[in-house]
Specification:
The chain has 138 residues and is of the alpha/beta class. Helices cover 28% and strands 20% of the residues. Helix 2 links the parallel strand 2 and strand 3. The longest helix has 13 residues. The mean pLDDT is 90.
Amino acid sequence: MSALHTIPNRTRKLPPLRVGVGGPVGSGKTTLVEMLCKAMRDRYDLVVVTNDIYTKEDQRLLTVAGALEADRIMGVETGGCPHTAIREDASINLEAVDRMLAKFPNADIVFIESGGDNLAATFSPELSDLTIYVIDVA
């Protein structure tokens, strides 16, 4: 059990924290997830789910960058509008999170990176406990 779950007198393990990372195309979502993973992986048990429309490019980028071990990063091909897969019908992402947690039941944090979208995109509360929006496209 990691530091995230070290609470005195707690008799039950806490579920992993699910962190959504959203923002426009090219804003730096993947770079942020990479940096968070590299900064946190020695202390916390991490897994990542990335979203792209027709590829698994963000999964590949995180793997090549060495953000985490390859099996801790899962790419999801949404096949459509990015915000639908994180809000209206998050089932493809919920399934991906479930699959990752089945492989890594002691995960402390699940990062869920959305496909590039506008700033109006919000994560379903079923999918994400909190959301980080990357808005600087400079």
